[in-house]
Design goal:
Length: about 375
């Protein structure tokens, strides 16, 4: 009897995961959909069109998926390369914390210059930055930074597939219990605990990223051979999301149903990677978007903010939403590419490098016959 399986030598040498890159592009596009549609809503007499409402609500999948990816990358690296606290702290400081602080100051100055929001005392301004309140999208970076504080302990406690299953299950229970959490505490502490920036509310998504990291080969090996089935799962999840917001009204990215939606959608998107990358028409743009996703996340609200203040009202028709979506992405990509020419640009917008020499695409891994 003969079976086929991927060459293990090629799989072990992978240092760039194309499927996760594809998932990151999907999350990035979803987040941009939310903010483009929300800006159109604000500039168009506070009214939703069926199309913009769909973009806004469906795009709410993006932020939790980014949390999954953040957890995946940390656990995957710790699993395969070990954990060095010094390297971890230096890497997170340069790639996340410093860019976050720089962009917090940029957005704070933007509000000061355009909206005439007066600067307050140092303590108040520092609190705004630490809470991610400098601008509407920066709260998520604060969530990720909070996870960094507990990750050194988590990676030490959960080092096997069985333990990762336990961690994922416990995290699911915690996120479920904290849904709609409103502590009876006054002041800044109570505000933080009840805010969307409170990381434990999101812990399941980071844990599920760890689950993907520890079961990566099994999940990819199963899903990439069934792209049409994965596409069907994605359609079912999408249809369910549409029904949910039509029945319940406007929903956020912290809705309870996402505890089921996000794992299913992540696995489905990973499995759909071979289908979408058959054509360069999809593969090249998605590769760029995935690679620049952090930069696009940081900069696209700035582009929309300037659009809102300088574009004539004519361009805020729903018919221009697709063009505005494309324009925001193109401007962000061009800006990031120009910025990369400058020294120390990695402290402003970190861009991961694709190491093609040693990377292996699961859709292109050579197979060999094994005789039993």
């Amino acid at each position: 009897m003969s079976t086929e399986k991927p060459n293990p030598d090629l799989v072990q040498k992978r240092n760039y995961l194309f499927e996760i890159h594809f998932l990151r592009a999907f999350a990035c596009l979803a987040v941009v959909c939310v903010h483009v549609s929300a800006t159109n809503f604000g500039m168009n007499d506070q009214t939703w069109n069926g199309f913009t409402y769909f973009l806004n609500q469906y795009g709410r999948f993006g932020t939790p998926i980014f949390a999954v990816i953040s957890g995946f990358l940390l656990f995957y690296q710790a699993k395969n390369r070990g954990f060095r606290l010094g390297y971890f702290l230096k890497s997170r400081l340069t790639k996340i914390v410093i860019p976050f602080l720089i962009w917090s100051l940029i957005y704070r100055y933007l509000l000061y210059y355009y909206d005439k929001q007066a600067l307050e005392n140092f303590q108040t301004e520092a609190t705004k930055i630490l809470m991610g309140d400098s601008f509407y999208h920066l709260y998520f970076v604060v969530i990720v930074i909070q996870f960094y504080f507990v990750f050194p302990f988590l990676q030490k406690l959960f080092r096997t597939q069985t333990l990762m299953l336990v961690f994922t299950f416990l995290s699911l229970l915690l996120s479920y219990q904290l849904y709609g959490f409103q502590p009876d505490i006054n002041g800044p502490v109570g505000e933080f605990l009840s805010s969307k920036s409170f990381m434990p509310i999101w812990i399941f998504y980071f844990a599920f990223g760890g689950f993907l990291a520890y079961f990566w080969e099994e999940i990819v090996g199963f899903t990439v051979k069934r792209p049409w089935k994965m596409f069907a799962i994605a359609l079912v999840v999408s249809a369910g999301a549409v029904v949910e917001y039509h029945v319940n009204g406007y929903v956020s990215n912290r809705r309870l149903s996402n505890l089921a939606n996000i794992p299913l959608l992540c696995i489905a998107v990973i499995g759909m990677y071979p289908f979408f990358t058959k054509w360069n028409l999809f593969k090249k743009p998605l590769t760029i978007i995935g690679q620049y996703s952090m930069g696009i996340y940081l900069i696209h609200p700035l582009i929309l903010y300037l659009f809102a203040r300088h574009l004539p009202q004519t361009y805020w028709s729903v018919y221009y939403v697709p063009l505005m979506f494309i324009a925001v992405l193109l401007i962000a990509v061009v800006f990031i590419r120009i910025l990369q020419i400058l020294p120390f640009s990695q402290f402003v917008i970190p861009v991961p490098k694709i190491k093609k020499k040693n990377s292996v695409d699961h859709t292109k891994v050579k197979t060999k016959k094994v005789v039993a």
